[in-house]
Structures
1.
Amino acid sequence: MTELAQNLIDALALGSLYALIALGVTVVYTVMGMMNFAHGEFIMLAAYALYVLAGLPFAAALGGALATGVLIAIAAERVAFRPVRNADLSAQLVTSLAVATILQNVVTGAVNARPQSVATPAVLGESTELGAVSVPNLEFVTLGLTAVVLAGLGWLLYRTRAGLAMRAAAENFEMARLLGVRADRVVALSFAISGALAAAVGVLLVMQTGQVSPTMGLTPVLIGFVAVVIGGFGRMVGAVLGGLLLGIVSSLLGAYLPADLVPFRDAIVFSLPVAILIFRPRGLLGAATGEARV
Amino acid sequence: MSGVRFRSRSSLAVSLLVPLALVALTVAIGANGTPSLQGTVTTILCNLIIVLGLQVFIGNSGVYSFGQLGFASAGAYVAAVLTLPAALTALQTPGLPDPIATAQLGPLLSTLIAAAACGLLAAAVGLPLMRTSTLAIPISTFAFLVVVYNVLANWDAVTGGSSALVSIPRTTSVESAGLWAAAAVAVALAFKWSARGYRLQATREDEVAARSLGIGVMKERLVAFSLSGVLCGIGGALAVHQSGVLSPTTFYFAATVTTVTMLVLGGARSVFGAVLGTIAVASVNEVLRGIEGGAEILGLVAIGDTPGLAAIGVGLILLATMIAMPNGLTGGREAGELAWLGRLLGRRRPRDRAAKSPWPDVPNAAEMVKAERARDGSLRAEGISVAFGGLQVLRGVDLELPRGEALGLIGPNGAGKTTLVNVLSGFLAPAAGMVRLDGTDVSGRSPNRLARTGLGRTFQAALPFPHLNGLESVAVGAMGVGVGRRDAVAVAADVLARLGMREKAVLPAGSLPPASQRLLGVARALATGPRYLLLDEPAAGLSEAEAEELVAILRGVLEDFGCGILLIEHEMSVVMSLCPRVQVIDDGITLRVGSPAEVQADPAVIEAYLGSSYLEVASA
Amino acid sequence: MLDLRGTRVAYRGVEVVHGVDLRIDPGEVVGMVGPNGAGKSSVLRAISGLVPPSGGQVLFEGRVLNGMAPERIAKLGLALVPEGRHVFKTLTVAENLRLSAWGSGAAAAIERTLARFPILRERAGEHADRLSGGEQQQLAIARALLCRPRLLILDEPSLGLAPKMIDVIYELLAELREEGTTMLLVEQNAARTIDFCDRCLVLGGGRVRAQGPRQELRGDSGLVRAYLGGQAELRRNGGGR
């Protein structure tokens, strides 16, 4: 019983981390129709901001990480993604792959290819006893941060004019423009939000592992993509659910797989979308009907 | 047999020989170079085979797969363990079962086994992956790449885990890699120019139109995915026998980005582009890698140790290509189709040649497709209802189209005409009702299956295959229902001649005006040898004279092909001169069925089109 | 107010509108009719900036609109109610309205709009996809009005609506005309459009086939020909007179 509760909390924490990643990918996808490979590098760069700003007070470093995520995302949109905004999905995907490679190797060149360790506040390494269950403080932070981010995103999307414009543009970009919604601003805003979400993930990853490396964004972005595919493309709720599901499955596999199979957890997790897509080609929340584009 | 060809003989020869010459040149440079240059060139040739593998799938299907390097990885691993001496195998991969562990095969046999294994793996993996949507394939294939990496890196006893396998026999020479690469070029071109290749290219150009011609999208993709797996496996096997070492990261993210860049820079649709792009990117890569370790430019600027420079270069090339030149260096054309290359080689413009050469006699397409088909029968729709969300688009419409007859289907905008055609052709499942083709209930059949049963259709938007020429576009129709490549060309030639579109045969369909594209759509559907042909506004955008011509052509089709024609058309003169019977629908129900004269005199029909008050005003 | 001078539209190099002239003065209600594929929607897309005209000029109050982004054109006071309505189905009715009302006085403007469309007030909290076709059309028009249009363009406002609902929509349009709203009305239903508008032009094959005030166009055989072909015209003339 205790073990189960323990595992469930672990699973929920991992699931919410994945949900944050998937949301970051989805925010851009809904508005621009692009799956952004470079989202992993937004995460990585925000994490490196923590590394670079290690001398500063922790709160300032956090602010720096947030600013880095947002600014990099906006800059990437302006320089690389705006010119291909009307290209087809494959072209956009490949473009984002190029941006990912460039950012990753700029960091490799500027810092180092090897992982660098980053000091994190000691309290995050400790655990809190809740009855018989011992919960690492980091999981509280993860769950708390996810809740705050979801609430913040909800506020932004549902309580502000900019969020309203974004939701409208996500449904019908052309119609939104006909009503005076400024396309460039909405796309830039979606990237800024995506960058902020990436920053949150980057910070959590650093706290979890205590280190940064140029390739640290690869697995997260793939997890985000897979979660989006599972949840059904372009749905915020689907992304959150897909992320949660993926995290929970991954975490529980880690807890309950026989020891010699645990290393293959990723292989099993990444096979999951294929299994789901066979039965629901449009994802869990995607429309079940076939397409008739004629 | 007919002498008609998609492209002139000389164009085909140039398309094959120029990339081969490029490979030969690369081999010649490598073979006479230093050992280090030899190694570099061999690696480039191995990469080329992998990039050609990517081209076979990505280039022809238009769907990006980021998982093909997983097959290179698997091929390299298989070839490595098959060639490692037993003692070394026992040391590095103690968990391997016996016949594999003790096997010590030669380079050729191990490469062939690796190729076969990768082909099987690709078929097995592709079976579920190709079922996913065009949108999901890039992601699920990437997930596959991660799965391969994860297994190779963690199955220590069998794969050696994350540490590299070493002391693999280094048997790949510049020459042998060159031979394999040349063969891969030939295979990629042969596939592209085969009936399968054309069917797959049609799905890339327009998935919906391809399905309407009988093409099963998933199946065609799976075949190419498997062939791509074979080529990537060969490339991986040869590469590992060049370097002598293999780790799970050898063919992973970085290699994926590099090979995709090579493909995209050259122009993914083109085999020649794959060759050009590979050599170009590899050259830049080599130069940058030389600088990475620190270098001086002209003795002035000193560049320090900058790891990652080569990868940044690759990334920048990829980014610049996508933004400024999305079709790549070749624009997606083969060597024989490039005007500048033609001038360089002193060829006459292929277009001139095609226009000048007489069109030989071709067999009668109508005879070929009509054979063995009973003349009687009809296409019947009974009580078709369709709703989109809350909006009832069709409410119980009946329709009967006998073989050999033309039925006009008219009605104002939004009446439900196109929706009815979508139901008849299998693109839309009705909420209620049944479709019978020659007495058989065909409700619920997929569009591609219906097309093979004899149901052809066109679309309101022409849905052309922009990068195929006119003859190819039409031949794909015949190939879609299983006609072989040669016969398909003959059928296409005949159909084009019938429609008076000979001179459009050599032009890319994307360059034609919409009216011609629509007519090409008719030709395409006709080449499937339909028993019933559903035409959605074929005369839109035609001049009066052209519309009259179209009517004459369609009369000939009725006569020769003996098929039934359902004609949606706003141009009334066309409907009236072709169709003895006209069905009017409005707001989802049938308003009237009758002769054109009856229909036009019907007040209800006039009201539906012009509004009730018009009658009063006009007759006042 | 709106002035099209030899406006041409092409998609991928292929021209579908071959030079259309159209002038609308303040307070006028102008109709544009014609069969499917006549080029009506293409002309509207060119006016609203969704496609750049391939030739000629589009002027709005003396300003050249060619090449201007749709959102800028919208802010100049040119509102389009598109064919198929395109209300935002994932947004509530109230949110649909809020999106279009910007600047100071937005709340008051929404209040005025709701007064005009009581059904929308009733359903303000519901998602727009729950509305019936007619209600969606009212929402689309309300939304366009909130943009404070100096020119209101309506593309097939009666398409797919029940006759009763069409009457409701046209009553509303008549009201707007009384208030002096300048309108461009595009319809397939020629008779009603001609009756309703001060002036109409008939489009066919990407060209203006006929135009003039309603008196001139009424019973015009060219109009019948555009819709139902030559034989129908003969029949009508022979039978009707």
2.
Amino acid sequence: MRRVATKLVLYFALISIGYAYLYPLLYMFTTSFMTVEDLVNPTVSWIPTRLTMENFIRSWNVLEGSKTLLNSVYLSAIPSILQALVTALIAYGLSRFNFPFKSLMLFLILATFLIPTQVTIVTKYMLFSRLRLVGTPLVSFLPAVTGQGIRSAIFILLYYNFFNMLPKTFDEAAELDGANSFQIFYKIILPLSMPAIVTTFIFSLVWYWNETLLTGMLLGNEIKTLPLALRDFAARFALMFPAADGSAVNRINEGIRMSATLMTILPLLITYLVLQRQFVESLERTGITGE
Amino acid sequence: MKLQKATRRALMGYVYTLPWVIGFIVFTAYPFFYSLYLSFFDLDFTVFGIRSTFAGLKHYLYAFRVDANFPIQFWNTVLSIALSTPLILIFSLVAAILLNNRLKARAFFRLLYFLPVVIISGPVISELIVNDAARIVDPRGYFIYSFFTALPDTISYPFVYMFNNLVLILWFSGVQIIFFLAGLQKINASIYEAAKIDGASSWIIFWKMTLPLIKPFILVSAIYTIVDLASFSNNPVNTSITQRMFDVDKPYSYSAALSWIYFVFVMIIIGITFLLLRPREETK
């Protein structure tokens, strides 16, 4: 009897927390389909009386969806691939070779994680503008290729832990067969490290997609990603649909804003639902939680 | 001449880590120290290029004495980091303990609690807040809220803050929940059984066993939380740093000074956290 009671309390707690998590998403979802009449109607709170796609069409145009979506895709996919490969190489060097100042390097890698983005944002902007790279995708490719991408430190340490758990006997056997260290990395270590690679890639993907503080500054107005377009959404909407004539049709409303938000996160939501196992379980499998 | 094997391997180690060393110098160390340098200087854009003149602590003093907005934004941000971090840690530990039970829908709940990590970004959060999507219940309607607001401000502030920022606290907890969950699963189930046989209640088991064993995870989660919150693009401080970059009378250097003030305080918060949660030397 007591067991059943605790189970019930447990489920109740989990469901209420779950509701708190889901609420913003549900709200976003239903509001996106609402017409202006439904939005102002106090008797309509969740279920729209009439489904409309009007909001989506409008906000897609204001977001310049086809352009910004493409920008978002390549500006998060390419740095993520680079990051997943480069941090693996760096971690391989740290894990399999002994050299002077190695522990200093590990310490510095840890330290870079603690430096918040905004400390270097001013000087990074100056650096890239002196190199005439502001507004080009290179501003996120170059740091990624040198292991200084978004949260690279976490990924280096993740690979480092992971490689340390792989038995060294494989390497030794391959070395006796005449393989050089890069061949060992490429032919033996990498195939064994799929969980770590997947984790690094998908988390980089998500973090690159959602990053707006630094990329917003460095990309300027030349390249807009979806989240950056969402950031300027209200201003752009007012520009495209002047509400000077006082008609309610041209006024921005929650339905339009929520549909824009929904479209910004939709690619991520789909990715998450498709790769759900990789997202949650890979974190545990890669030993990120280890010492 | 053939190099010693150890030397050769050391060299190979440098080859693999070279990209990081270059990147660290160019994209991290140089911007980091240059922004410190810049915060003590005035920049002038002349036809001959950028001229810098030493300004001493001018920008730092300006930030606190003349600037009307910065001190408010700054203390609000620091306070919200200091308040959110313990709330996030407590919540994610509780959620992890709940999820650690044998449940049917465990995978589903875990999936749900982790979801915000995937979709959270500055603009999305602002849209949700602007459109009232982040307010689940209006706390002002409840008795407990008015009870807390009736208390003196200094006492009630943390509670009122918690009610007003409930969704943000939940949404920033995803990684920490998974992290604690992994930590809990590492604890050997047999020691729980042993404690139960000895007659310990689950309350005592939590305080005397689970908490000490999970302590290293708490420290790492705490640091992760602070860094995560501090770098979030909606922070008033972060927005003001980016907005002030092109101020005509004090380009770049004022922002650099602001970012260093902020950085120092974030480091102080991390330092205090470390002191509170540091691994104590066990007596053997």
